[in-house]
Amino acid sequence: MARASSPGAGKQKRQRGHSLSRKVAAYTVLVTILTAVLVTAVQTYIYYHQDVQDLQTKRINVITASFLEAIRINAWEYDLDELRLQLQGLLQVPDIVYAEVSFSDGDNLSLGNQQDNNALTFRFPLSWDSAGETMRFGELRVDSSLAVTQERLMRELQQSIISTVSIVAAIAVCILLVVQWLITRHLNTMASYARQFSLDRLHHPLKLQRRPRPVPDELDSVVDAINTMRTTLIADLEQESLLHAKIQQKQRELQGIIDNSPAVIYLKDPDSRLILANAAYARILNTSPQELIGKTDSELFDPEIAQDIRDHDRQVRQQNRPMEFEEQMPENGQLHTFLSIKFPLHDENNKVWGIGGVSTDITVRKQSEQALAESQARLLALVESLDDAVLEVDRNGICVQAWNNKWPLDVNPVGKNLTEISSQHTSAELLNLVKQVLASGESKSLEFIYPGRERRWLSARLSAIDTPGMSPQTVCILCRDITEQKATEERLQRMAHYDVLTSLPNRSFLQEHLQMLIATATRHNAQLAVLFIDLDRLKMVNDSLGHGVGDLLIKAAAIRILDCLRNSDTVVRQGGDEFIVALPDMPRKELAIHVAEKILKTLNQPFRLGNHEVVVTASIGISYFPQDGRDADLLIKNADAAMYAAKASGRNNYQIYAQDMSNKDVSRRLSLQYGLRRALDRNELSLHYQPQVDVKTGAIVGAEALIRWHHPRLGPISPGVFIPLAEDTGLIHPIGTWALREACRQYQQWQEAGLPPFVMAVNLSSLQFRQKNIIRLVTDTLDELKMNPESLELELTETTVMAYTEDSINTLQTLKTMGLKLAIDDFGTGYSSLSYLKRFPVDKLKIDQSFIRDIDHDPEDAAIAAAVIVLAKTLGMEVIAEGVQSRDAFQFLKSHHCDQIQGYLFSPPLSAEKFARILEDEKRLELELA
């Protein structure tokens, strides 16, 4: 568009018509004046310094020649009057305005006016020579004024400046006229052209009112350049118009791509504010692209999501390169996962000024990848859980892949031929099977020996791997190491006829062997004997010393039994602690009895098993062929019945089978065992309480809970009968738990009824004590019944606490820490080690009644009882004697300072009702009668 000329344009031209020429003239004058002044100032400065140097030289000469020596002498003699006269004379010299003599001791004498500026200061040291040494005693200061010199120089400077300014002014007028005519008026024409220049006047060239010149000057060049620029501008505008149209078309296309792209596209400025956002970005935020412009991530997302996005943007800025990130962004109320490719935006100086990004929703892909990864992980875990190595081989026998590192090779099988991972013969078989499987699609199996560093048995199963759209190309080989399986099969073959522990033949072998012996005896009309041997109380050894010691005992017993037999005799291990001996060719029954007695005698000798010495007995039953049976099963059964009869007779003996044994003894044992299993459910078990009395006061201080069984058909059963049966069958665990809870429950009931407190003593069997949950059982019982731990005393046998001493000590320490009292029952009947006994946190030793029963007339029992009391007192323990029935026994114990007694002298075990009654009556032992 053409711009209209303003009405004041002519006036403006007139006002500015001579501005350039005036400026040229003014600058010329200014530069010339400044140059002249500078030169004059430099010249004046040089003259000034020459005058000052001349003045300084003259003054120094005058002072040193006329005054210095006299002043030095008067100052040395400290003749102040003469010194003042000398200084006054010095002030008469032209330009000298101040004189001062200063002494080293701080005194001074001065005349005149001291000058701070425009003065020269001269300093002369005052010294005196004496005996070859020079002593400085003061200083002369003289100030000379420079005012006269400066005044003369200023007059000369003013004259020089006035003449210079006059000359320069005349030159400037001439320059002004020349510049105005030659340059300024044409520049005004150019300025007027430029002011009127517009797109409408692009075709009007610039022309100056001056004559043409054969050689163009600078103004002609400027005019030509302006006209060239005009034509160039015309061409550029035409080109720009075309480019602008193309750019707009491309922008429309690009905007269409951006807005229709399913990916999120955005640009951010240096402040992380959006400067571009497409429709996809707006769609996930349920807004429009225009409303996103200028927003930051903190304004659009939750703090956690916004922080992650800012961290990613910062990484791109710091590393100054495109980067990929996985980011979470909400869409339709749910978090979606986006793969964001972010890149830095650079300015013309290659500095990062912003961030651009393209984010694609990969939520479905991530879910698929996760599902695939989980599936692959499950598949891999499944493969890894197999006991098989998994190989994939091609039709040429080359291993393509391998999983589950259980292939028993020294090298990785991948890439190896079957000949490299098996023997030559086996590889040929495997390769042949590979081809068969690929051809038929049927699975094949092969067992072979792998000849590596160790000879291993392997089992291979080959199956074709289906390839979609084509026939199978590879085969999966599941290869399992079956060396142990093969060894197990061999062991099973041996175990089928031999015992693993003792290497003796087992019962299966005996069945066949005994049938053969019976057949031989039948042919020769001979007789044979069968001995059924059971080791007594082996369970007690296992429970107290451990099954390892029990196994050693069984092996040692087997060796001793073998030593008692002939070469023709056979001994087998029936199982557990039972052995069966077959004695063929027995002309007389006495020979079998002799063998049984020999076995009993040799087994009675102590066994040295590691650090333990164990004594064991045996019960032996004997049956004869053909009197007691004509087949192996019946002979063994009848010998077993005779063995039970030997146990019922007190163990450590033999019994010969009789007709009435089978039903009578076995039936009674099975009946008791069955009844004991149901005794708890039928409430047939009960507790009786035997008082424990203080020897000094006669008062009841405790009670021992004793278990009783009243069989509904057989009546009362002695604890000596059913307790060993409970230990043999494992029923001691529920029975012992019931006894502990029942005793604690009854005690708490008595306390709630207001009866006086005492200590409740409960026996723990060795099996209970060795339970891993014994601490939990006691703790739960006390917590459940809210019983004070100090009111409970646990009694353990000497054998129980001495077994596994370190474990026993730890368990006892824990119980003691809980506050319980601990007692060793039946002390003196076991095999205590005093070195361990002193480490046990035991409160009380209980002397076994076997030492108390005959204490009044058996010196050995009396000595043992007295020794136990002394031992307990030495170790800081209490002593209680059980089974006290006579006054003489009580008197003996009292005289030896036994703490407590328990027995029929005071009271038998009582039911809960009767025990509560004597507590209420505060019954005491009549000490004076004892």
Q: Can you describe this structure?
A:
This protein is an alpha+beta fold and about 950 residues long. Helices cover about 50% and strands about 25% of the residues. It contains 29 helices and 30 strands. Strands 22-23-25-26-27-28-29-30 form an 8-stranded mixed beta barrel, surrounded by 4 helices. Strands 6-5-9-8-7 form a 5-stranded antiparallel β-sheet, sandwiched between helices. A 5-stranded antiparallel β-sheet has the order 11-10-14-13-12, with helices on both faces. The longest helix has about 60 residues, at about 20-75. It is elongated and about 175 Å long. The termini are far apart.
Strand content: 15-25%
Overall body shape: elongated
Measured as a percent range, the helix fraction is 40-55%
The largest sheet, given as strand count, sense and whether it forms a barrel, is: 8 strands, mixed, barrel
Distance between the termini: 145 Å
The poorly predicted ranges are: 1-18
Cα radius of gyration in angstroms: 64 Å
How many helices in DSSP terms?
Answer: 29
Biggest sheet strand order reads 22-23-25-26-27-28-29-30
Secondary structure class reads alpha+beta
- Let me know the average pLDDT: 81
Compute the number of strand runs: 30
